[in-house]
Amino acid sequence: MRPLRFLMIGGFLGAGKTTTLARLARFYLDRGQKIGLVTNDQAQDLVDTTRLRAQGFPVEEVAGACFCCRFNDLVDKVKQLENSQRPDVILAEPVGSCTDLVATVVQPLKALYGNRFEVAPYPVLFKPSHGLRILKPSPPTRGEEQRAGGFSPKAAYIFRKQLEEADAIVLNRIDELDAATLTELTDLVHAAFPGTPLLCLSAKTGQGFEALTELLDQRGNFGRKVLDIDYDIYAEGEAELGWLNSSLRIVADKSMSVDTFLLDVISRLHEAFNQCGGEVAHLKVIALSDASFGVANLVSSQSRAELSLPSRAQAKELDLIVNARVALGPELIAEQVRQAVTAACTACGATAEFHTLQSFRPGRPQPTYRYAPAGPPLALPSGSFPGTSP
Question: Which of 268, 237, 225, 56 is CA-nearest to residue 151?
Fold first, then answer.
């Protein structure tokens, strides 16, 4: 049998991975290829999964931990897609706070399933709103820890490591950047990661997208940058973020604008998190009615909330899913979500019934496998296997 093409798109929370995957999925379908998608999150009720399914794509989800810690689940979900869809291409979206994916996903796939998968180049999306501040942090304030992009150095460490292991860095959202900022960002990326190819595009508009599809069509020995990762810093940086996934039902007395309601909820959350001093890594809200669905997005505390996918619908009843990744305690995030949704409902004469509300800090990453290059002994998680230096 012909190997299944495996494409994984990395990038920090809010970098635009889901929008990129959706555009890639449409590209391959238009080219006559069958596709399957695998999403990933630390918990159930993922906006990305619901959003992609609502667009008609076949999607499986690995929930409860990142791909590296649920490697066997990833393989099983791909098998389910193979059985149901007979895909030519698998598109995979890892957790946005995860790094070390070459050593814990790409190399294990090659070593254990080399005849089954053909692994494409591994691109990592660059998020301008945090990237500019992380690669060019402000001078430290006396008596305070220097923070990069609104996060501690430990969280910024994850951002940098994600880019360091990329076969190519993809500067996304260029439609939102002026010429001077784009030049500054490209200079910063070239200086920080010399030798790594840099693509500039907008997954939202399609500008520059052809360069990404050309990259992903290349054949060769990709995914070879096995990093030196300090798992203590990695774990502490990831745990800095509070995580919330919630699903609820909204019922109104009369029809209301779905998009207006979405923007009201996410704007109230934006204001609340700013007042609490919590940097937003990503905030997503999706509303589904019988007629349509809409998605609202906030990618950083300094950004504006936007309708990334407007529904243009009116409805009396909605299913709502909220995903929040914020540098705050999970209990406080849950409280702010309850208050914001309740206030938005009161403003339009609606009520909310919470079905699920999960809030937590991610646990320490425990990869199922980790590629160990030949050389001095490394402190590796159980399940590591030896290899040869890339």
Answer: 237
Work out the angle at residue 225's Cα, subtended by the Cα atoms of residues 33 and 153, and round it to the nearest 5 degrees.
110
Q: Which helix (H) or strand (E) holds 182?
A: helix 179-192
Strands 314-326 and 10-11: unpaired
Q: What is the domain range of residue 328?
A: 242-360
Does 262 share its domain with 276? yes
End-to-end CA distance of the chain: 27
- Distances in Å between the Cα of 280 and the Cα atoms of 53, 207, 353 are 26, 27, 25
Residue 343 shares a structural domain with residue 368: no
Q: How many residues does the chain have?
A: 390
Instruction: State pTM to two decimals.
Output: 0.91
H/E element, 21: helix 17-30
Sheet holding 242-257, edge to edge: 306-309, 293-298, 280-288, 314-326, 242-257, 350-360
Q: Is residue 32 part of a domain?
A: yes
Q: What is the DSSP string of 253-276?
A: EEEEEHHHHHHHHHHHHHHHHHHH
pLDDT per residue as tens, the chain (390 positions): 689 999 999 999 999 999 999 999 999 999 999 999 999 999 989 999 999 999 999 999 999 999 999 999 999 999 999 999 999 999 999 999 999 999 999 999 999 999 999 999 999 999 999 899 899 866 555 444 556 556 788 999 999 999 999 999 999 999 999 999 999 999 999 999 999 999 999 999 999 999 999 999 999 999 999 999 999 999 999 999 999 999 999 999 999 999 999 999 999 999 999 999 999 999 999 999 988 999 999 999 999 999 999 999 999 999 999 999 999 999 999 999 999 999 999 999 999 999 999 999 999 999 999 997 654 333 333 443 334 332
The whole-angstrom separation of Cα 150 and Cα 137 is 9
Output the six-digit token pair for 286. Answer: 């999706």
Q: Angle, nearest 10°, between helix axes 17-30 and 47-54?
A: 30
In the chain, the number of structural domains is 2
